[in-house]
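Project standup — Tuesday

K.O.: blocked on the structure for the chain from last sprint. Re-posting the sequence here as requested.
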Amino acid sequence: MPVSEKFDLAIIGGTVWTPGGPVETDVGVRNGRFAGFGHLRGVSAATLDAKGLTVLPGVIDSQVHFREPGLDHKEDLESGTRGAALGGVVGVFEMPNTDPPTTTADAINDKISRALGRAWVDFAFFVGASPDNVEHLGDLECLPGVSGVKMFMGSSTGSLLVPDDENVRRVLKSGRRRVAVHCEDQERLEERAGLVKGGAPVAMHAEWRDVETALRATTRLVRHARDAGRRVHTLHITTAEEMVFLQDNRDVATVEVLPQHLTLSAPEAYERLGSLAQMNPPIRDSRHREALWRAVRDGVVDCIGSDHAPHTLEEKQKPYPQSPSGLTGVQTLVPIMLDHVNAGRLTLQRFIDLTSAGPARIFGIAGKGRVALGYDADLTIVDLKAKRTISNSWIASKSGWTAYDGMSVTGWPIATVVRGQAVMRDDQVIPGQIGAPVLFTECL
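H.V.: unblocked you, prediction finished:
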């Protein structure tokens, strides 16, 4: 074979999950893209031995908070993306509730400049919706490196908030890409704040931010989206009632769930973890957890994100409700969900749909989300039989902790490949941060 036809990298000996299912084949990469399949030994400049391993399309985490700029003591773009690489994640979409919030072109460009040369994996940034930038959202959502618009209907970490119907409608009428939305009803949150004001057990978090708080916002959002002719993506859905509603509105709304809500449940999580289990929307009881799994099995759920939202242990140890809401998660998404695969709660094919094909479909990602000729050579290579224990010492986040510390899992990320370059192998990142902005079909 002429040198010009050789591959830059060949992944040898693994079970490769293609769009048609699992295939025992080698994978050839040229110029950062998938370029061939078959018996490729001896026709590549470099090889990656995947014997006994499962080669998956690269996992995309479409909801992370990396806190830079302004809150860098909790996390930054280097440490957050390093955790992603260690966890088998090839791309991340970062949220806008930084300090200052990401609401302008200058703020987007600043984040991109901070990420280039420091990010271990590919990235994109959401622009935050606010009453002050509504008229510019249609332009901002198609800037290079922008994954779309994020709207907070209820208050969470940071100052971004669009609580009222008039401004929700304004946001939905400005632009054309799918809008990602945090659905909690701000009016009800304020009405019920007295339940925890002055101090309360952390388990009251789920009572304050109750089912009705979530359902009311989700139904409002879908009604306004339908009127505006705009597609929306409902983030971190937590309730049985929302799932019943959303399954009848699939033409307008896509649905995300989190590993936290599929794995933990009240009251046990609060009793064991205290404020380390505190997040928005909250961990709820097992009735809701089972409803989320039912929605996963029934196809109502479109993707899984981590909602990685780190705070320091010192901050989390403040008395509730002074303790901030948020859990780490980007590094644990793959092992936690592979453990669920091994337990029979979902198939590996469904895992791929939720973590690769799903994000690509929802957000219109260009050239990612499947192992196919011409696509970016992004791979999450895993050992489905590996038994490991998740520990705080493994976590790359500046916060240094995980709610899953001490949890034994079956299934582990062994290598992370981003556009044909291995960025992690055997729990070690490989120097040379190559992360680049993700491309989107609606904005090419």
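K.O.: great, moving the ticket to review. The longest strand covers residues 379-389. Residues 119 and 221 are 34 Å apart (CA to CA).
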